[in-house]
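Reviewers asked in the last cycle whether our approach scales beyond single polypeptides. To address this, we selected a multi-component target totalling 285 residues and predicted its structure end to end. The input consisted of the following lines:
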Amino acid sequence: MTIWRWGSPPGWRNAFQEVERLQREMNRLWDQVSSGRVFAEGSRIFPPVIVSEDNEYYYVRAELPGVKAEDLDLSVVNDQLILRGEKKTTEEGEKVNYHRKEREEGVFRRVIALPARVNVDKVEAKTQNGILTVKLAKAEEVKPKPIQIQTG
Amino acid sequence: MTEKEVKLREKQEVKGPAEPTKSGPVFLPAVDIFENEEALTLVAELPGVSQTGLQIDLKDDQITIQGEVGELTDPKERVLLREFETGRFFRQFQLSEVIDQNRISARLKNGILTLTLPKVEKAKPRKIEVAVG
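The resulting structure, written as structure tokens, was:
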């Protein structure tokens, strides 16, 4: 937080400078908010997911480029999906000289809490192009049921 | 000893001079570049890009990687949590003359693009025999 000194050096020019500085700070803050990057760096967990639903299923999609099915461990308990695995980036083996290394690697473990219980016997998962899609059937009692309306 | 945990790297949006003709976000894929005696290898993370959505162009020593990712969710699904966006991937690299452009090969698997850029013969390290005497 910047601390402004009010009332010191007199003169019109200084007063306007303070106002301009306030305006610049507000513009900068607005840019940050509008770009969506307000959360702290590193506070999110790998992998990022998209959770969606329709009447019958929950869908969890995770971005896992380069993660093979054998390096991935999925389990479902009640209303939680547990995703564990390892993301490796060095498959080459032989010693190489790196010019650039931007890809992240390491182990991950994430628990995704779903809004309601799922039928653990009816879960399908597939990976395609580095995207894992898990389709979980909602437990029977959770599915929306139409209600008959009596007239009369 | 604890294992190293993988860090989440936010997708970086490209705000470059070239405007895309289609609307939507454009992201910079994470790339590893390394070299050995035979070739330079470029590994790019392009999650969600299929073979049909990938385009690699080579022109004037510049290699351009473009990948399209469509919406992952079906329109009838209601999104409850969205932690990543999908859009287009775009990245360009300038190749040095040591690359033999005719022998560049590419492989796409699991959302990972591996580009092998072989070096021209004379750029490979050669042992030089030293005659004694």
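Residues 8-38 of chain A form one domain. We regard this as preliminary and will revisit it once experimental data from Aim 1 are available.
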